[in-house]
Every structure is written in C-alpha cells, then in structure tokens.
Design goal:
The relative contact order is 0.11. Helix content is 91%, strand content 0%. The protein is rod-shaped, with a radius of gyration of 42 Å. It is mainly α. It contains eight helices and no strands. The two termini are 80 Å apart.
Length: 293
C-alpha cells in the first residue's frame, strides 16, 4: 500500500511541476504578446494621425495647382482620409478583440496560481500523513495505526479530489490559451483593414493614371506666352507714349485698343482651361451611392 501511495505521490509531484511550468510560460509569453500587440495598436494609431496630416497637406497643395493635378491630388487626399477611417476601425478592433483578452491573463494566472497552491497544500498534507503512518507502524501500536490509516485515506481523498479539479482547470486553461495564441482575431482585423484599403487604393491608382499632364503643360505654356506678350505690349505702349505725348487723342485711342486686347487675352485664357474633368475619388463615389440608397 505504501509503495502504491508513494508512486501516486510521485505522479502528483510530476503533475504539479508540469502545471507550474505551464502557468509560468503563460504568464511570461502571454504578457509579452499583450505588451507587443498594445504597442502595435498605439503605433497604428500614430500612423493614422500622420496619414491624416498628409491628406490635409495634399488637399492644400492641390488648391494651388493647375486643373488636372489639382483634381488628382484632391481625389488622393479624400481617399487617403477614407483609408484612415478604416484604420481607426482597425485600432478599435485591435484594442477590444486582441489586446483586452490578453490583458485578462494577469488575473487568470493569479487564479491558477491560487488553485495550484491549494493542490500543493493537499499533496503536502497527504505526504505528512504518510510519514506519520510509517513512524506509527515502526512502533507497532495497533490502535494508533488504525487512526493514522484513516487520516491517510482522508488526506489521499482530498488530494485526489484536488488533483482532478486541477487537471480540469489546467485543461480548460490550455484550451483557452491555444485559442488566444492562434491570434485569429488579430489576423481577421488585419485582413479587414487591408482588404478595404486595397479596394480604395486600387481606385485611387487608376484615377491617378488618367491624369493628362499635357493639359497642365499647355495651360502653363499659354500663360507664359501671354505674360511675355503683355510685357511686350506694355513696353511698346511706353515707347509710344514717350514719343507721342503731344498727341493726346491718339494716346486715348491707343489705350482703348490695349483694353480691347486685354479683354481678348482674358477670354482666350478662360477658353484654354476648358471643361473640368469630372473624375471623382472613391470616397466621393461611396458617399453618393449611400445617399442615393
């Protein structure tokens, strides 16, 4: 009987060490995962803020450029801002679905350690009763031996019950840990964000590819030519005024001609711009489609 009980104690001691190792590893690595994923979430939030700043700068710059580039940059800024809305959803999901469950492991580990401590106490109590029974058997008083055997059985029963409870607890703990270690929620959150971002950026890229840089170059060329012509006309006018000051009537007629030429030039400048391109950003199309629904 003592030999069997000794083997049982050895088995429980092995179980105890395995459980302690499981809990220690969970405390160490799950804590590290939690810290790293929390830092990842904070970095993602900072990236969102920087991208919002970039979107605003792109929009401000677009307002200073020629029509083609202006339209493309405004569309890019709108789509970039829309992607940051998706990134904000990514940050919130990471915090609630990934980081928060891992934070709970601090309390879970404390609970498991308390259970393990109770299991260890029951095992120590059983071992103590066995040692007492062995001493009594050496002295060989029958009445005290029977009492000691009862105490050993009671301690063994408590230890067996604690062992079964601890095994069930550790199994449940392992199942939950395996589910969390798979980080399926993390992968799902990342897939959702990147799929949405890819959809928006694909539209944005195709939109940028339609930009006709020759239109903006033509506008700039015409503006430069008009400026040169204006400067030449102004110089010519100054020369004529210097040579023909005495001819006030002719000067008035000359000024009238210059005003007519300026009006024609302004009209030609407006004609050069032509109709604006009606390309829209993904964000604008998304809003319009949802308003129509």
């Amino acid at each position: 009987a003592l030999s069997y009980q000794s083997l049982t104690l050895f088995s429980r001691d092995t179980q105890l060490k395995a459980m302690e190792m499981t809990i220690n590893n969970a405390e160490k690595y799950m804590g590290q995962f939690c810290s790293l994923l929390a830092a990842y979430t904070r970095k993602t939030a900072k990236l969102r803020d920087k991208a919002d700043m970039l979107a605003r700068q792109l929009h401000d710059f677009a307002c200073t450029e020629d029509p083609e580039l202006s339209i493309c940059l405004k569309n890019l800024s709108e789509d970039l801002a829309m992607v940051q809305d998706y990134r904000q959803a990514e940050v919130e999901r990471l915090d609630t679905r990934v980081v928060t469950p891992l934070k709970a492991y601090g309390d879970i580990v404390k609970t498991k350690r308390a259970d393990l401590k109770k299991f260890s106490a029951d095992r120590s109590r059983e071992l103590k009763e066995l040692h007492r029974l062995e001493k009594i058997r050496l002295n060989n008083p029958a009445d005290r031996q029977s009492i000691a055997e009862v105490n050993v059985q009671k301690a063994s029963s408590n230890a067996n019950r604690s062992t079964r409870q601890m095994e069930d607890t550790i199994i449940d703990f392992q199942k939950q840990k395996l589910e969390d270690v798979k980080v399926s929620n993390f992968i799902m959150v990342e897939m959702l964000f990147h799929s949405k971002a890819l959809e928006v950026y694909t539209h944005t890229f195709n939109n940028m590819e339609t930009m006709d840089i020759h239109k903006d170059l033509e506008v700039n060329t015409n503006i430069v030519a008009q400026d040169i012509l204006m400067m030449a006309l102004m110089g010519f006018t100054l020369v004529k005024r210097a040579l023909r000051r005495q001819r006030e009537m002719e000067e008035d007629e000359e000024e009238d001609e210059e005003e007519d030429e300026k009006e024609e030039q302004y009209d030609s400048e407006e004609d050069l711009e032509g109709p604006r391109t009606l390309r829209q950003s993904y964000a604008a199309q998304y809003v319009r489609s949802h308003i129509q629904k």
